[in-house]
């Protein structure tokens, strides 16, 4: 499969060279042009200035914020070191409701960690949260890196493992009751890129959350990337005809499953992000808690388009947003 992928890319690039008349540039010139053509520019429209932080979180910033860690080489291997601190802070979910979050690096969701398949990952986890916490990563690793043992307030734990397999994964606190620790905000995405990478795209992370604001074991509010209804107030600008790659994760506890529906379009599904070719094309996909996928699409017509779970009661309690497709030069 990787060989096929590379051959397809090379054939595509050669075709483009001929199309643009670059075959006559000579070997060096063609090589430079080929590199440029191999990586077409990803167009990301400017973020509207009014889309600022609200209630302590800025979902517009979280959307495309990838943490690649501090990179070093150790014995010929790439090591990525990440620093994550557990803390407590109050976030304002809407005008009426404030919520005491337990969070990672002072944001909900926590940072989106990103590595390449085969890298060594070292996570330095410092607990300043006032309760026992831990970080449990999805992936393949030995038991001492599984993150189910409590880390006491004021202490630090180091989790170290290989980034495998490639896919759209997650991490979360695994201290009982896990429902409460996740419901309070202790989770994030862990993306492991395939060795050959993926085609250029405008990449975004969407984490769905539920908030039990009155401790009755039911969610009263829901959100994409931390804040209810944020992307309804501030639609996400995307470029017309641009490939969009969404890393979507359902972190809603207390509801068995939710779907993700995109208006006026269909998307390619890469289940758990673990394939390089899509497994299906649809406009609604259902995810249990901790399920996640890569979804790819592009929009043909400018304008605003909603996205939300098709459990409409959940959508109407905050898990709803919009893309604004713009046609720029
Ligand atoms: Cu915890």
From TrEMBL:
GO MF, any single term: copper ion binding
Q: What InterPro entries would the database entry show? A: Cu-oxidase-like_N, Cu-oxidase_C, Cu-oxidase_fam, Cupredoxin
Q: Which Gene3D superfamilies match?
A: Cupredoxins - blue copper proteins
Any keyword Metal-binding?
A: yes
Keywords in alphabetical order:
Copper, Metal-binding, Oxidoreductase
Plastocyanin-like domain: which residues?
Answer: 91-196, 205-326
Query: This chain belongs to which protein, by name?
Result: Multicopper oxidase
Species per Swiss-Prot/TrEMBL record: uncultured Synechococcales cyanobacterium
């Amino acid at each position: 499969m990787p060989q096929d992928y590379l051959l397809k890319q090379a054939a595509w690039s050669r075709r483009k060279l001929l199309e643009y008349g670059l075959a006559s540039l000579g070997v060096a010139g063609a090589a430079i042009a080929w590199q440029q053509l191999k990586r077409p520019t990803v167009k990301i429209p400017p973020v509207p200035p009014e889309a600022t932080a609200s209630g302590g979180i800025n979902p517009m910033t979280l959307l495309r914020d990838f943490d690649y860690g501090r990179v070093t080489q150790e014995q010929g291997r790439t090591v990525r070191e990440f620093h994550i601190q557990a803390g407590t802070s109050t976030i304002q979910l809407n005008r009426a409701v404030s919520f005491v979050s337990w969070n990672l690096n002072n944001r909900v969701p926590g940072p989106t960690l990103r590595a390449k398949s085969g890298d060594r990952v070292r996570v330095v986890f410092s607990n300043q949260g006032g309760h026992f916490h831990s970080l449990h990563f999805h992936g393949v690793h030995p038991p001492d890196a599984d993150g189910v043992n409590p880390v006491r307030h004021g202490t630090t734990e180091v989790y170290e493992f290989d980034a495998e397999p490639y896919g759209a994964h997650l991490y979360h606190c695994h201290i009982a009751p896990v429902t409460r620790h996740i419901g309070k905000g202790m989770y994030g995405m862990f993306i492991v890129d395939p060795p050959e990478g993926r085609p250029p795209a405008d990449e975004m992370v969407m984490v769905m959350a539920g908030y039990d604001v009155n401790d009755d074991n039911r969610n009263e509010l829901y959100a994409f990337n931390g804040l209810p209804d944020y992307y309804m107030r501030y639609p996400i600008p995307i470029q017309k005809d641009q490939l969009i790659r969404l890393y979507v994760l359902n972190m809603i506890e207390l509801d068995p499953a939710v779907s993700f529906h995109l208006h006026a379009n269909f998307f390619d599904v890469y289940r758990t992000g673990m394939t390089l070719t899509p497994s299906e094309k649809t406009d609604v996909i259902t995810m249990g808690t901790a399920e996640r996928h890569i979804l790819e699409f592009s929009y043909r017509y400018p304008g605003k388009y909603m996205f939300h779970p098709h459990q409409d009661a959940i959508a109407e309690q905050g898990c709803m947003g919009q893309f604004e497709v713009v046609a720029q030069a």
